[in-house]
């Protein structure tokens, strides 16, 4: 799916009945629901920001394929899979888990369930920036198809809403990660 198509589906979904909306508030609620509430969940928002900040921590400046080819220590540790991304995750997560940041962790996540969800979101988002791994790409595409299949159950199904939200933010961080390559040089 192209970035343009992805953003169009998120920003201006074709199946939203704008004309049937009674007020501007109805349109806003409909669009909020269509983006799966991503913008109203502070933990998800922070996971996106945190992931964007750490996804290239200690990046060596060469692609994973080069790290694998050179048989670097990281490539061996991460078994040649998403080497730079896993290294960034490990380094940043280790720092966040340091005793000095207990108050920060408790502020980010008030409960164990929130902590687990934050960890899962962060891992998914950082690994999503590995756009060259064919297996990860296939898995993401399959999850997209499953989430947005026309035969899905009601939009109120919380599992399906969470699946859609997760895959949407994964695609958004991918687009954000590579957007600079599409800018004009001047």
Automatic annotation (TrEMBL):
GO BP annotation list: signal transduction
Entry keyword Repressor: no
Residue ranges occupied by any PDEase domain in the UniProt entry: 1-186
InterPro entries to which the protein is assigned, alphabetical: PDEase, PDEase_catalytic_dom, PDEase_catalytic_dom_sf
Natural source organism: Amphora coffeiformis
PROSITE patterns: PDEASE_I_2
Binding-site residues, Zn(2+) 1: 55-56, 177
SUPFAM superfamilies per record: HD-domain/PDEase-like
GO molecular function: 3',5'-cyclic-nucleotide phosphodiesterase activity; metal ion binding
This protein's name: PDEase domain-containing protein
Hydrolase listed as a keyword: yes
Binding positions (Zn(2+) 2): 56
Domain of life: Eukaryota
UniProt cross-references to Gene3D superfamilies, sorted A to Z: 3'5'-cyclic nucleotide phosphodiesterase, catalytic domain
